[in-house]
Structure formats: structure tokens, C-alpha cells
Amino acid sequence: MLVIDDDSSVSFYIKSVLEAQGYDVIVAENGRDSEIFASSHCPDIILLDLGLPDMDGVAVLNKIREWSAVPVIVVSSRQQEQDKVRALENGADDYVQKPFSTQELLARIRVALRHSRNSGTNLSIARDSRFEVGGLVIDYAKYRVYVDGNDVELTQNEYRLVALLGQYAGTVLTYADLIRRMWGPNAKQDNQILRVNMANIRRKIEKDPAHPRYIFTETGIGYRMADK
């Protein structure tokens, strides 16, 4: 998760709360760093303050929306209706006013993440927060992957790649789309990074990586998760 707030006391508190819930959190204190961190880390969700020292938060939001549909929750002390409307109309998914209830913020984060997971074509994820095909299970609520009942140890990027393919099971995701979603708009369009991650994933989830049952290569195009 990316927290964007120039008030270090607020960002420290939010970071502490989220880390206590098991989330990985990075913090940006200005608009410039927020753009860099958003594109380099590709967080699952962004909490954005509007009153940044070098640019308006809505400008940051517009920059992010040029390339990403990542959930963005505005967390701001601005109380005017026009500020809320402007943020929402420019792509924010939610608006939380400071001071805020910790439990309410956590609930809104869970909702935003659930909506994000459900944005693909896989209806079973929307219904059960999990995807199953053969012996493979992706548990989106727990951020875990299982094969034949065994917990598979994946790196963060490996999990994100498997989870993304699961969201669009049966559909080919192109190399370019996967690179953009995984590593941001400034990542080199080099399929090598995908091939390395996929080779590691297949060693962990496939009985025979040379003849995969779950994730297939569409030569010259991209990758596809099995859907049956």
C-alpha cells in the first residue's frame, strides 16, 4: 500500500495501523515522490491526502489515472462538498475525512480491495474471494496460493502475477499489459522479467513445468490462466 501524506504524524499512524493488519506500506510525503513510488511499486491501493506541499492531490490522482486503475482512497481534512466531488469525479474511489475512525478506514480499504479483485472477468472471485482450477487455489482474502492442499511460498511479485492471471482466467493477458500492471508505466518492455518470474512460479505450482496445467504461454502474445 502507498500512503501519500506530508504530515508525518498522520502517515506514521496510518502506516502503523496498516502494518498491524499485515499490510506492507510505503510512504510518500509529496507529489513528486508519490508518482515515482506509484509507478515503481505498483501498490494494491493508495491512500491520498489532497494538501501536498508541491502539488494538489487531485493532480497526483490524474497522473496515476493516466495509466492505472489502482483503488485510490482520498484521506483529507478538506470538508467542502466541492472538494469531495472534485476528487471523486477525477478518479478517486472513496473519500474519508480527517479526523477518521480507524475501523471505518480499515473497512473502506477492505471494500476497495474487494472491488479491485472483482474487476476481472472471473465471477467466482467476486462470489467467494477465491479461484480454483484443478488442484490450484488462489485465496484472494488471505493472499495465499495452494496446490493440492499445500501452501505455496511465493514472493510478492510471484503472488501478484498469479493473482492477476486468476482474475482473468481463460483470457490471454499480453506481455505489455502484464508488465504495465506489475511494474508500472515506466518499466522496460522487456519480456525477460516476466519469463524469470513465470519460470519460478511454474517450478512451485506445476508438477511438470515443461507441460503446465495451470498457466499457459501464448507464444509471442502473453500468458493465460486455465479456467477449467
What does this structure look like?
The protein is an alpha/beta fold. It contains nine helices and twelve strands. The strands form three sheets. A five-stranded parallel sheet has the order 2-1-3-4-5, with helices on both faces. The longest helix has 16 residues, at 102-117. The radius of gyration is 19 Å and the shape is elongated. Helix 2 packs parallel to helix 3 and helix 7 crosses helix 9 (192-205). The two termini are 32 Å apart. It folds into two domains: 2-117, Rossmann fold (3-Layer(aba) Sandwich); 123-225, Orthogonal Bundle (Arc Repressor Mutant, subunit A).
Low-confidence stretches: none
What is the approximate shape? elongated
Query: Treating each run of at least 4 consecutive H or I residues as one helix, how many helices?
Result: 9
β-strand percent reads 15-25%
Radius of gyration: 19 Å
Give the CATH topology of the largest domain. Rossmann fold
Number of strands: 12
State the order of secondary-structure elements, H for helix, E for strand. Answer: EHEHEHEHEHHEEEEHEHHEE
Q: Write down the domain tally.
A: 2
Set down the secondary structure blueprint:
Elements: E1 2-4, H1 8-20, E2 26-28, H2 31-41, E3 46-48, H3 57-65, E4 72-76, H4 81-89, E5 94-97, H5 102-117, H6 123-128, E6 130-133, E7 136-139, E8 144-147, E9 150-152, H7 156-167, E10 172-174, H8 175-183, H9 192-205, E11 215-218, E12 222-225
Parallel strand pairs: 1-2, 1-3, 3-4, 4-5
Antiparallel strand pairs: 6-7, 7-8, 8-9, 10-12, 11-12
